[in-house]
Amino acid sequence: MAIMMARKVLRGIVRPFQLSLRYKLMLLMVLIAVLPLSLVTLFATKTTKQSLASEVIRSNESRMEWASKYFDEKFDQLQAVSYSLLLDSTLFPNANGGAVQSEGTPAFVNQYTIDKLKSLYSANNKNIAQIALYLKSQNRLYVVDKDAGITTDQLGTPQVDWGAVGRTHDSLNLLLNNGKNTFSIVRSMNRFSDREVLGGVTLEVRWKMMNSVLDMVRSESNSEVFVADADGNVMYNPYSPNISTDRETLKAALAGPNGPGYTESKRGYLFYQPSVSGQIWIVKFIPIQYVTEGASSTLNFSLFTAIAFAIVAIAASVLIAYVTTRPIIRLTKSMKAVEIQNFDVDIREPRSDEIGTLERRFNSMLGRIKELIQTEYKAKIEKRTAQVKAMQAQINPHFLHNALQAIGGIALSRNVPEINDHVRAISDLFRYAIRMKSDLVTVADELEHARNYLQIQKLRFQSMIEVRIEADEDCLACRIPKFSLQPIVENCFFHGLEGKMDAWRISIRVEKVLDEIEIDIADNGAGIGEARLAEIRRRLSQETEAQESGEGIGMSNVNARIKLLFGEEYGLFVSSGVNEGTTVKLLIPAQEKGETE
To answer: Which residues cross the membrane (predicted)?
Structure first.
């Protein structure tokens, strides 16, 4: 009866392991390895597109705003040319409409006006193609360009009919597009008292004076940048004769109540910025392909990395599953022999790991199975089952360390040593944390742990941190409680340096004074007020049994462990002043390994 029960137990254990354990383990490990990679790749792709789109919007809004200010400055310079004529007391004395003449001869007026216009044209001929001045008192129009300076009584021009304007009391201030890569600025001179028109100025300006700012706005080679009026008509486009943005869409965008901004569509991003008091608009269109192409490189790299890691993970999963299950299958074959009442089987050369332990226990069980068939045999089988399940659920604490080392190796192979340095620091921190052989370590190990922590902080704060670590050679082999320095250094960031705008300095000095080790950790942070400093010293001065809880792994914890291990005369001592930084002195006996043990 006992043999029958043993056979049933063995049959229930053997069949599930033999038929499906290996494949289930393979499938589980492949899923664990591949699924996170796939999710991370998809998330990285989506995040990259969103980040790139946000960066495109932010940078282009800034460029458009800067371009508008530049346009306004240029137009202010052009307006200054107009004002220099309209405010000339010789042409418009006291704004009463009369020009100074030389004893009734108009020749002086004509010559003075032509010379004045030529002087202004020569000073601004890079930007101005033509200057025209209308004097109502002379009923004449004076024109100067690169060819010559003339005067005429024909007051009608393509931009404005000065004869008609002179008969009104209207004030003109126009910006007109000429359609030949130039535009005109038209201003009238009105008497202050009754607004009567006394004259006016027309400046024909070359659009190319704005090319430099438009080149700056056109930061993407496939983008469209042009100048338009409020009705959506293109006034100037130095790049491409064809504009993909239709006039109605542009007019609707410019007519919005919010002024400058952008619109997003399936085709791309349309940015618009008013300038010159809303008389012109700077418009930029970026096709959506720019964002997708920019994200495609990241996507390709992510896919390549994910596929490579997936292949490695699948191969490793299959290999690990095979190596892990092979001794179990060997064990099940031995159990099969016992199932047919062959108690003479024995597993030769058992492994040295947990499975080997299981095999050795199985051999021990076989030696006792005849006398313990009803009790011990069943207990051993159940114990093996529990052990196998425990092995399936076991997590190797060194896996993360090895994975970080692999990532650092890849970074180094791709010529990114900075990533390798920071990954190595994180890896060493983790390895140091899980290495729990003893509560005491060497000062050298504890300094290396603090150095790795500071390297990770430098990754966060870049060049803001200046670190100095000095240690006497005869101190490095002395023993110190594990995790004594890093919590104090961490306090420097959280309580001393956070929010400080200028350079951060942290120094660690280790020196031997007689038969004691003094470790000074100093920062140039905000310091500690007198009341808070007194409270900290009160807590640190308490006896170990009476120390208050709630400080976590902070100074109170470190202080308590030092006092428990070495005595009440040792521990932490704090000195500080507001805006003068903080110094924490750690005092321990100078004991090496043999002495402490």
So the answer is: 301-323
- Summarised one tens digit per residue, pLDDT across range 257-289 is 677 888 888 888 889 889 888 888 899 898 888
CB 12: neighbour CB atoms within 10 A? 11
- The helix or strand, by DSSP H or E, that contains position 211, with its residue range, turns out to be helix 211-217
SS3 call for 597:
coil
Cα–Cα distance for residue pair 189/172, rounded to 1 Å: 8
To the nearest 10°, report the CA torsion of 473, 479, 481, 485. 0
**H/E/C letters for each residue in 2-65?**
HHHHHHHHHHHHHHHHHHHHHHHHHHHHHHHHHHHHHHHHHHHHHHHHHHHHHHHHHHHHHHHH
Burial class (CB in 10 A: 0-12, 13-18, 19+), 557: middle
Contacts made by residues 425-429, CB under 8 angstroms, sequence distance 24+:
425/452, 425/453, 425/455, 425/456, 426/452, 426/456, 427/401, 428/452, 429/453, 429/456
Q: pLDDT at position 59, please? A: 87
User: From CA 211, how far away is CA 71, in angstroms rounded?
Assistant: 11
Residue with the two structure tokens 């409270």: 535
**Nearest alpha carbon to residue 198 among 187, 213, 209:** 187
Helix, coil or strand: residue 95: helix
DSSP 207: G
Higher pLDDT, 97 or 528: 528
* Residue listed under structure tokens 């110094």: 583
Whole-number Å distance between alpha carbons of 201 and 82 = 6
Single pTM value for the model = 0.46
Choose the weakest-confidence range: 12-21, 131-140, 304-313. 12-21
Cβ atoms 129, 146 nearer than 8 A: yes
Kindly state the tokens that stand for 432. 């140091």
Give residues with Cβ within 8 angstroms of 385, minimum separation 6.
Answer: 13
In the structure, how many helices (H) and strands (E) does the chain have? 16, 18
Provide the 3-class DSSP secondary structure of residue 581: strand
Residue at 391: amino acid letter: M
Q: Which residue has the tokens 């007519």?
A: 255
Measured distance CA(372)–CA(5) in Å, rounded: 13
Backbone φ and ψ for 15, nearest 5 degrees, come out as: -60, -50
Cα–Cα separations (whole angstroms), residue 223 to 218, 239, 248, 282: 6, 10, 19, 13
Order the strands of the 268-275 sheet from edge to edge.
234-236, 224-228, 280-287, 268-275, 261-264
Cα–Cα distance, 158 to 151 (Å, whole number):
16
Answer whether 425's CB lies under 8 Å from 461's CB: no
Which stretches within 220-353 are classed as H helix?
247-254, 288-339
